[in-house]
Predict the structure of Cache domain-containing protein.
Amino acid sequence: RSKMHKKGQIVFYDESISEYINYLMNVEHEVVRAITNDEISVCYQPQVNVQTQQLISVEALARWNNPTLGSVPPGTFITAAEETGLIHSLGLFVFKKACEDIYRCSPNGEGAIGLSVNVSPMQVLEPEFSATVISLCAEVGIDPARVTLEITENIFIHNMDNVQPVFNQLRDYGFNLSLDDFGTGYSSLSYINHLPLNEIKIDRSFIDKFLEGGQSDMLVRMIIGLGHSCGMIVVAEGVETEAQFEKLVSYGCDLVQGYYFDRPLSIESLVERYKALSEAIA
Ligand code: C2E
Ligand code: MG
Ligand code: MG
Ligand code: MG
């Protein structure tokens, strides 16, 4: 850290900022290359019905396997892609790939599984977003009613007025909308009040502390009750143990996702593990 004097003020200039800018420019370059070089892949984590333990849907999760860096966690490359604007192409790449993969092993109609795709708030604010995703669905053939768009809450803060019409349009097209990481943002209740949501996902941090006493248990019950009162589906993420699962059963949670059932799987492993999917392909 060095000091720069500016008319009586002291401004701190952080060398890590320039390092960071370098890093971003590097990642920008790398992400473009990664998409064109097939380094980005998509894996799928099952979401199962709490009562029947049947596979209901999967969440698509982006993976980046770089020959030199190894596997880069989404937390890193998604943030970099957002900061460089590359999230638009990356997001659409994941969306299309996921629709194709899932449509192939689970055609529309009875028994079709749902597909959840994470969408960055920046993508939603791009004017062509809803037109693009609806046309990608048409191109692939997948019914948009099978597709849920997951949005994290901390994105909108200043943009509720811009986001609301887009969400309404996405709903008109038949998509489902889910609020991801519920309970960790700034205005969870305000989103529920203003946006046409079908689903909330209880953030993993609540499930983590679930069995330790404290407030998590009460909060989880409250979120499930709140979701149901609003006619929404409630999903718990990060379920790792039987004890957590059993509690969610008794609290009437709808869907669970987590290592207790499955880790995120390649499309091949997903099909191998779930018989109905492999039969659909055969
Ligand atoms: P998320 O949407 O909340 O996804 C759930 C994350 O929790 C995933 O991490 C998943 O692998 C992890 N997880 C699932 N079950 C368990 C469990 O039982 N225990 C633990 N400890 N973790 C579990 P992942 O794949 O590292 O993704 C992190 C975040 O990156 C995602 O959080 C999502 O916000 C973002 N992300 C991933 N793919 C995409 C994408 O294609 N587009 C956008 N915009 N964001 C993405
Ligand atoms: Mg998600
Ligand atoms: Mg989440
Ligand atoms: Mg998360």
